[in-house]
């Protein structure tokens, strides 16, 4: 029983286990509606994919509910996402992200679709017509727990009376929710119920929808031990086990009235009074017959789940043991294996060296190639701080970030093991007169979009909010497909969920890429990285370095600004890519770059807006103001290496480091 109770306290584990124990008859996980089709690669299709891709981050930071639209006229797409009321921000993002991508892959050309999958506690919906706040009762889909109620109780009359009272109470409570949440749960002995509507639905429409689902379940599925019914506008589910996280607001219906019940409450306690007159209806023996098999099944499957998830859990959660090493076990490499992989840190295997240490290429026994960062001994980090930072970096998982695979903390060595990125850094191609010829416009545009998506993840989509503070071409690595990966988090700062800015007396970075408010006053924020990204866009477009560009005495930002105002933005485009791609994309990219480098940080767009502007040409863009013109670029040493003689131009190949994160 103790083991079972512990399992019931684990919200996600219970969800997984219950899905394994009970086999639901599901009409369709994704319902692709027959309201019209769009053609592949059409404007509508791109809008649909863009909005479904961006909505997970927005719904998770907006309390679990988000409406949005994108595009104009017949290409306009409306989308909505809703998380179950008991999900936290991270789980909400995970489930919505999964469901949105399932809709994209399953509904390849349908103009409308929705998904309230029984195993995924969220709604994702899109359409070519606005449905915000509109009651929709079709299509209805249902699923059941195939076990019969008659196997669990001998008094069906009393059972259905309790069931009906509970459904009505939960539906009423859910409909009375706020403009941010219309969600309720309820318990009547072993009967568990959950109902939810999108909060933009009115109280009366929500109640109408939920009552319709209850009637539908009664008509189609009466006699089974659980199930759910759903439409695009509401959802109800019930079962004989706990599948949600109970709260103080969970509706409770007792088998007997409490001493505080008064005559005025007689209508509310109709069920309690009836059951009091029929105390023999559901006996303790019957309850045991119902509960014990469920407990045994869940306990068995829970045990299997624990074994399967043990390794994954070790990577995701910090253990509270004294030394914290148990949670890091799966990330830790042995020093002897790293030495073997790098041929004892041979100079022949050195990829580069910067202010934090040297990077070596290595090959593990299984043939996997790695990049090993050997940190200098004078880093100022304690062992516990080092391990905590490893866990932070290991949790940052995105295709446009260099992935930390593990670490080694043995003797006096502090080693970081990253994925090996074969094509070195962006500056090795962009500023090389020979290699830059490989960068046609489509490749450059793909690199710009990839960097933008990586920054969006750091600022909004990950469980942390991280400010990079040293974004530049040398810190963008390119994989074998020339896809970009942001690296070198040596000066990164970790912000709290609600924090937007901070300041420092130790300004560190690279002039030219640093925002004016950071250089002048030591103030930095997510908009500081937006500024650096804007400079990087203009470098990628022109193929020239911010520190070396001169055209009739004008620096890169001045030159870009003048040409944009005169309608000659294409003058900025590198001759090697000018004739190889879309001119409208080139002009638009210059415009976005200038928006990012505006002097007033409040005028710079968010990375979410930048990704939308890069992905959708129908998104309107404001007129940029005059850029913040900076002095010619010289390098400021990173904080961890202020006494070093290395300059930024040498922080190149596979320059990856652990972050110096300061939680706020």
Structure description:
The chain has a six-stranded mixed β-sheet, with helices on one face. Strands 1-4-5-3-2 form a five-stranded antiparallel β-sheet, with helices on one face. The chain is built from 17 helices and 22 strands. Helix 5 packs antiparallel against helix 6 (203-221), helix 12 runs antiparallel to helix 14 (526-542) and helix 14 (526-542) runs antiparallel to helix 16. Mean pLDDT is 77; it is low at 1-29, 256-287, 311-326 and 630-664. 35% of the residues lie in helices and 17% in strands.
Biggest sheet record: 6 strands, mixed
Which secondary-structure class do the elements indicate? Answer: alpha+beta
Going by CATH, the architecture of the largest domain would be Orthogonal Bundle
Task: Give the helix tally.
Answer: 17
Q: What is the name of the CATH class of the largest domain?
A: Mainly Alpha
Main-sheet strand order equals 6-9-10-8-7-11
> And the CATH topology of the largest domain?
Transferase(Phosphotransferase), domain 1
Label the overall shape.
globular
Provide the gyration radius in Å.
29 Å
Name the CATH superfamily assignment of the largest domain: Transferase(Phosphotransferase) domain 1
| Uncertain regions spanning at least 5 consecutive residues | 1-29, 256-287, 311-326, 630-664
Helix content: 25-40%
Number of domain modules: 4
Number of strand elements: 22
Give the overall average pLDDT. 77
What distance lies between the first and last C-alpha atoms, to the nearest angstrom? 41 Å
